[in-house]
């Protein structure tokens, strides 16, 4: 298989990833600016949506409990990170793709560091309700659940695409990823622990990290032998 070196001209997909990274970064910074500045139209919209969904959550205890199970166990950030760790181990043990395994681990770590840094810098209060149905700690923006799910699902989908999986597997993976990313964001709003813009911010920032990681992988993918890959990896995209 042909692999491009650091000095190779960027292929079209690399240029696309670079442009997408720029667009997503601009959108993320714009939303971050609105949130940090407490822009009134955004604050008002957040309040209206959150107030409505909270009333629904109080009136629908069974659905609310289901959302708590999904957000605390199935789509929890640590569940996502453990899934990523399992893929990292598989890449090293079964495909000898050490560079790609390191790339995946560092990309997820970057997402976590970026998320925590922005939370500390913005320090946005979470919604407060007289009759809360759930609780959460630390600052609100961006949603860590939404951002982590976006980063992990996005990177794993890209790896599946690179490995050329079958159509049925690909469609199933896309469906699971979309349901997970959208679902975890909606559960955070439903449970009243995040404003809607926190979730949108998590989605935007997470997608930005994925696009940046894809661009880096395309530009920095080593030549045969530079990361001591096995012959099987040399013929298989990673």
From TrEMBL:
TM segment ranges: 20-39, 78-93, 100-118, 138-160, 172-193, 199-216
Originating species: Streptomyces paradoxus
Record flagged with keyword Transmembrane: yes
Record keywords, A-Z: Hydrolase, Membrane, Transmembrane, Transmembrane helix
Pfam families per the UniProt record, alphabetical: PAP2
EC number: 3.6.1.27
The name this protein goes by in its record: Undecaprenyl-diphosphatase
Domain (Phosphatidic acid phosphatase type 2/haloperoxidase) ranges: 100-214
Gene3D superfamilies: Phosphatidic acid phosphatase type 2/haloperoxidase (1.20.144.10)
Record-level Gene Ontology MF annotations: undecaprenyl-diphosphatase activity
EC main group: hydrolase
């Amino acid at each position: 298989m042909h692999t491009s070196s650091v000095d190779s001209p960027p292929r079209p997909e690399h240029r696309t990833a670079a442009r997408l990274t720029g667009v997503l970064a601009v959108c993320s910074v714009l939303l971050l600016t609105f949130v940090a500045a407490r822009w009134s139209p955004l604050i008002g919209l957040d309040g209206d949506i959150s107030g409505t969904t909270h009333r629904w959550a109080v009136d629908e205890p069974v659905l609310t409990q289901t959302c708590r199970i999904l957000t605390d166990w199935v789509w929890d950030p640590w569940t996502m990170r453990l899934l990523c760790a399992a893929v990292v181990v598989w890449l090293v043990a079964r495909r000898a793709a050490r560079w790609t395994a390191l790339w995946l681990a560092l990309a997820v770590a970057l997402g976590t560091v970026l998320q925590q840094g922005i939370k500390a810098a913005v320090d946005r209060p979470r919604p407060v309700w007289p009759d809360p149905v759930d609780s959460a700690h630390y600052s609100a923006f961006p949603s860590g659940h939404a951002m982590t799910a976006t980063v992990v699902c996005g990177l794993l989908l890209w790896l599946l695409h690179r490995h050329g999986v079958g159509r049925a597997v690909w469609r199933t993976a896309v469906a699971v990823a979309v349901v997970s990313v959208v679902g975890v964001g909606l559960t955070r709003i439903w449970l009243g622990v995040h404003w809607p813009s926190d979730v949108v911010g998590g989605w935007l920032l997470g997608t930005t990290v994925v696009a940046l990681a894809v661009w880096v992988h395309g530009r920095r993918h080593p030549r045969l032998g530079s990361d001591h890959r096995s012959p099987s990896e040399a013929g298989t995209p990673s």
